[in-house]
Design brief:
The chain contains 14 helices and 13 strands. A seven-stranded mixed sheet has the order 8-7-6-9-10-13-11, sandwiched between helices. The protein has a four-stranded antiparallel sheet with strand order 1-2-3-4, with no helix packed on it. A two-stranded antiparallel ribbon has the order 5-12. With 365 residues, the chain is of the alpha/beta class.
């Protein structure tokens, strides 16, 4: 094994004496001053300190690099009080409710930072659980309406945070998807009043249903921060018409909002850990005047989009036979400047709006 000392006192170790090189380590064409982390061809190598510190291989894989970064951050910022609050609740997580309690303080802080919370903000939290995220938000002077379905956890919150912050925390016990008080709870009395925000670690089995309720409420909410399953989040964030993950829900999300990815979240950031990878994802809902005009209702438009994706791998024209005749279909493809062989996942959200409006103008859809 060959070792080269740099001017900064760092030893660069290359595996295998037969493969050892005498290349200078002060710079390379691809990475410049970062050559101490590169072998000159963009490949990672091991770095140890002159004092004999532990070697660290810099990962070339971006996802692994993010995980390593988060793990290091967690070691320095994790707050034992979060795990303590979960333990004090004396509650066995109910898997059928999708309960995985967040116990990593860095994730809590990143969610709050992404939401840009300010004193006096109105917040909707769905599934506060043991209150780890709730407590940190309340310490920022915001006012929270929290909806908790689990009776045991709701009682714990009433005994704890509700008494500690009686003027800032309103607890609704029940199923959010069946709650009919949402609009009244967040109705703005003055058009100039700031819109509310949503910050929540929601159960993964209701994410789609929650989005269908909240995304159309751009007049009420200005930002939404959620914990999502990583795979689902990637599908929703990417406005990648033509990609294999593009589907009807992608069209809905981009019609109503501007989604953005915040950060990955490791499994051991939860108690108990979920079986899937997670992440923080944000949505900036569009206000009514920002939405593209439709020749019909929102419900009619998304029913149309769903019909277009009925057989995703088939050509779009096969799915359109259920909503319009051949003559209208041929004209419609000309309007959006697409070939008849185009597939559902290849159209953008804007093209679906144009397609819907044209077919509606012909008396179909």
């Amino acid at each position: 094994m060959a070792t080269t000392m740099t001017t900064s006192g760092t030893a660069v170790v290359r595996g295998g004496a037969a493969r050892a090189r005498t290349r200078r380590t002060t710079g390379c064409a691809r990475h410049g001053d970062r050559a101490r982390r590169c072998d000159g061809r963009g490949r990672g190598m091991m770095i140890v300190t002159a004092a004999g510190g532990r070697p660290v291989r810099l990962s070339k894989n971006k996802k692994r690099a993010k995980e390593e970064m988060i793990a290091q951050k967690k070691e320095t910022k994790a707050d034992g009080a979060l795990r303590g609050r979960v333990a004090d609740a004396d509650h066995e997580a109910r898997r059928w409710l999708g309960q995985h309690f967040l116990v990593d303080n860095s994730v809590v802080l990143d969610a709050i930072e992404a939401a840009e919370l300010k004193e006096g903000d109105r917040i909707l939290e769905i599934g506060p659980g043991t209150g780890n995220l709730t407590a940190e938000m309340l310490s920022r002077g915001v006012r929270i309406t929290a909806v908790e379905k689990d009776r045991n956890l709701a009682e714990k919150l009433r005994e704890g945070l509700c008494k500690e912050y009686p003027e800032h925390l309103e607890l609704i016990e029940g199923d959010f998807l069946k709650w009919d008080g949402l609009e009244d709870a967040f109705r703005r009395s003055d058009p100039g009043q700031p819109r509310a925000k949503v910050v929540a670690n929601i159960p993964y089995n209701i994410t789609t249903d929650v989005l269908k309720v909240l995304l159309p409420m751009g007049q009420t909410f200005e930002d939404m921060i959620f914990m999502f399953q990583e795979e689902v989040a990637q599908r929703l964030v990417n406005d990648d018409a033509g990609g294999g993950d593009y589907r009807a829900m992608s069209v809905r999300v981009h019609y109503y909002s501007k989604p953005y990815y915040i950060r990955p979240v490791l499994r051991d950031c939860f108690m108990p850990p979920p079986n899937v990878e997670s992440c923080l994802i944000g949505f900036k809902p569009k206000e009514p005047h920002e939405l593209l005009s439709l020749s019909g209702t929102d419900k009619q438009f998304f029913t149309f989009v769903q019909a277009c994706f009925a057989q995703k791998r088939k050509m779009l024209r096969n799915n359109l036979k259920a909503v319009c005749d051949d003559a209208t279909m041929e004209e419609a493809f000309n309007v959006i400047a697409r070939e008849p062989k185009v597939r559902p996942q290849e159209l953008t959200m804007e093209e679906y709006v144009k397609l819907f409006n044209f077919i509606r103008s012909r008396g179909d859809a």
